[in-house]
């Protein structure tokens, strides 16, 4: 694992959540993909963002931490061979590949790479 990638939280209303995170918490908007059910906020100068996901679109959302890795496919195989039970097969995202799993205590984690970053 190279570093933290992003932190995902579920919300019921993206408009209300945006107002809270921007106005009340004072975080800067990183991106707005509301039509896809997500908006993200910067935390200081850090690259990892807090990404809010609309629970009406992502019904199984749980608070999730993603880690950046060099190659999701290779790390997926290594972790699977070490006994990690993944929630799905690796999937394509805008910047590369990703996959999620839960630890033995029910915490959701994920790995992603930037193999398609332009």
TrEMBL record:
Signal peptide: none annotated. Residues 3-114 form the VOC domain. Pfam families: Glyoxalase. It comes from the Bacteria. This is VOC family protein. The lineage of its organism: Bacteria, Bacillati, Bacillota, Clostridia, Eubacteriales.
């Amino acid at each position: 694992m190279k570093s933290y990638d992003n932190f995902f939280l579920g919300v019921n209303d993206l408009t209300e959540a945006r107002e809270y995170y921007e106005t009340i918490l004072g975080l800067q908007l990183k991106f707005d993909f509301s039509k896809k059910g997500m908006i993200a906020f910067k935390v200081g100068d850090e690259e990892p963002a807090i990404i809010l996901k609309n629970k009406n679109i992502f019904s199984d959302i749980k608070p999730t931490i993603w880690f950046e890795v060099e190659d999701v496919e290779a790390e997926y195989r290594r972790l699977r061979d070490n006994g990690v039970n993944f929630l799905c097969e690796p999937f394509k995202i805008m910047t590369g590949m990703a996959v999620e799993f839960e630890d033995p205590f029910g915490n959701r984690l994920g790995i992603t790479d930037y193999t398609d970053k332009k």
